[in-house]
Every structure is written in structure tokens, then in C-alpha cells.
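Reading a protein record of the kind used here takes only a little practice. The record below shows the convention in full:
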Amino acid sequence: MIADYNSVVYLVINLVMKETQRLRTRSNSAFRLIYHLVLVTKFRRKSLTAEMLSHLETIFNETLNKWDCTLIEFGGESDHIHLLFETIPSIDLSKLVNNLKTVSSRLMRRDFKAHLKKFYWSEKPMFWGGSYAIISVGAQAPLEKLIEYVQNQEKPE
């Protein structure tokens, strides 16, 4: 009886959802969890370059994959970045964001030390501001509009 119910639920979900909105499934759940994360540089300093944004995209993609998440879109300007990513229900978002900030900060300070020294001269390691914004996608705008918004960020030189 349970197997029949699950099959019917899965069939209904697939019929209702468009291809671009297809739910991901696990053994006992169906979901589509997409988030829009915004991180700003410490003191909102305009320290990010195009090369750094490209490197950050790689870092975030690799880190999200380790958490069983998928980077959908990445963009940014000289003082902030946007990530659209999909995750699974068991992820603790605050721990994920903390890990994304920690890993990217450490690697950026290592790989762009000379450049960042112009903006952050303190002995204390700095890169990201202490706060962040994370918004669930779908309540405010369709995913396609958010992807377009993130892609159209003003690119630093």
C-alpha cells in the first residue's frame, strides 16, 4: 500500500511540475530547495577583480559539491557576490554558509595576498563581512529572473 501511494505521489508531482521545476528525490522525500546567497567584502571594500570572481566561482562550485549542493549561477561586483544554489533538506544552512565563507576567505587570502593587502592591512585575516543575506528562491521572483539578475552584475575590471 505504501509503495503504491509513493508511486502515485511521484507521478502526480512529475505531471504537475514543468521540466525546469522538476523536484529532486531521495528515498523518502521530494524537494526543490534553491537559495540566493549574497556575501559582501569586509568594510564593503571594492577589492574584487574579474580574475578573483572567476576564482571564487570555482571555489564555491567545489565547496558546494562537497556538501551535495549544486551551484546554479554565480555573479558579483567589486564589493559583493551572489550565489544561486540548490541544496538538500538535511543541510544546515548556517553551517554551509559559514563553510563557504571560511574556505573562500582562506583560499582568496592565500592566492591574492598581494592584491588584498592594499585593502586589508590588519594582521587579522579578513575578507568577507560578518553578515550575509540568504533568501529562498520562488517567494519573491522566479528562478529565471534571479539567474538573469545575477548574470547582469556589473563586472569589475
Notes: Confidence is low (pLDDT under 50) at residues 11-20.
